[in-house]
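Sequence, please.
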């Protein structure tokens, strides 16, 4: 379910949908149904898996570290880290970008950008 998830700017709705799908698989895996009224935390603990939201964050920060370690002339920098200036904004709320998702993850997990350069710190 998380194939190429490191590049997705994840909204709460997407995370919720994937969490529901994952929990259905875990219930099935454990042989439970919703009628058994077993809490999600109990099933997660029994199987030993982290929440999908944590996995999203780990994948995204690992990819961020990979990009940061690349040389500045690498093609990944031209598409991800550079902004186009002087573009007229449309109406409504701006779309969530990958950069904003990474900044939110770094803030939520209290990680500095320098830690991203250390491969061992993020499990790369």
């Amino acid at each position: 379910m998380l194939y190429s998830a490191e590049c997705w700017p994840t909204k709460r709705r997407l995370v919720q949908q994937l969490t529901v799908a994952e929990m259905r698989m875990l219930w099935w895996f454990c042989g439970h149904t919703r009628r058994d009224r077993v809490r999600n935390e109990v099933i997660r603990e029994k199987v030993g898996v982290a929440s999908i939201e944590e996995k999203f964050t780990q994948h995204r920060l690992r990819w961020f570290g990979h990009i940061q370690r690349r040389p500045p002339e690498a093609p990944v920098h031209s598409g991800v880290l550079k902004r186009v200036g002087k573009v007229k904004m449309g109406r409504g709320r701006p779309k969530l970008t990958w950069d904003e998702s990474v900044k939110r993850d770094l803030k939520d997990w209290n990680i500095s950008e320098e830690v991203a350069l250390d491969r061992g710190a993020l499990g790369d």
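Residues 12-30 form the longest helix (19 residues).
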